[in-house]
Amino acid sequence: MDKYYNGMFDGVFKNTLCTEDNNMLLRWLLECCLEVKIDTLILKDKELLKNSTHTKGKVVDLYIKTNAELINVEINNHPHGYNNERNLAYLANLYSRSVDISEDYNKVRKCIQLNLTSGKKGIDLRSEYALLKRNVLEEEVFSENFKIYEINVDLLKEAYYNNNVEIVNKYKPVIMLTLDREELEEFSVGDERIMEYKKRVEKLNSDPEFMVFMSREEDQRKTENTLRNIVNEQSQELSNIKCDTAKKMKNENIDVETISKVTGLSIEEIQNL
What is the pLDDT of residues 13-51, one digit of tens each? Predict the structure, then answer.
């Protein structure tokens, strides 16, 4: 069977939903996930406006004029330990630029990040994060202008397989991104918006140049993951060697300060062995 790339791949997402001539699908997705009404939507990242569908942009930035908001959308299809920090940095940069161009701090645009996340354990179906001022008895929002929303795509896919009609109907524009060709064919019946998305995805997946581009991108990702795993394994192996050495030295009644100098472990780590 031919390889099929769905909307959870960055290149497919940007080239099916983030088109300047027709952003109806993107508006539907944002309204669903952010639970807001969007009247006007303008793509901000110029990379997304290039004619070539084979150019990979870094971030999807959008202006929502009626709500005076800036939105950053991130597809976290293969999350790593650094994802939260990286995504927070993106949003902080967006907020900083919003402050720079504003003439009044009270009129700074709200900056919102939407994370569509797959492969991350322990998160709710829909999570909302904000800067909080923590008091003894209560918590209050420090600023309404800085918020992050995260959608657990895996739980949505699970709801789809379990025929949870309420959740499926609410999150249709997210679920459609996760489906393979056969699932999408069935899911699109009776819904013109999903049928339009399916048409765009099929066009991309039948484009030989785009498929080569996606294959190279996927191969690069796998290579990076392989190298990262090798480094992690080597780091763990080195840590085990240090611990074994420290244990042997402790058994010889060598003082912890000397053991720390030899192994590089902290005194606390040595005492806990």
Answer: 888 888 777 788 999 999 999 998 888 787 775 443 344
Contact 222, 13 (CB under 8 A): no
User: Distance between CA atoms of 252 and 207, rounded to whole angstroms?
Assistant: 68
Helices and strands of the chain, counted as H and E runs? 11, 8
The pTM is what? Answer: 0.69
The CA distance from 260 to 273, in Å, is 12
Q: How many CA atoms lie within 13 A of 88 on its CB side?
A: 8
Write out pLDDT tens, residues 167-225: 999 999 999 999 999 999 999 999 999 999 999 999 989 888 887 766 666 655 555 55
DSSP state string for 185-198: HHHTTT-HHHHHHH
Cβ-based neighbours of 53, under 8 Å, separated by 6 or more = 11, 15, 204, 207, 210
Average pLDDT on 121-129 reads 91
Contact criterion met (CB below 8 Å) for 121 and 155:
no
Supply φ then ψ for residue 133, to 5 degrees.
Answer: -100, 115
Q: What are phi and psi of 109, to 5 degrees?
A: -65, 140
Helices 208-251 and 256-263 cross at an angle (nearest 10°) of 150
Mean pLDDT of the residues in the chain: 80
Strand partners of residue 151: 116, 126
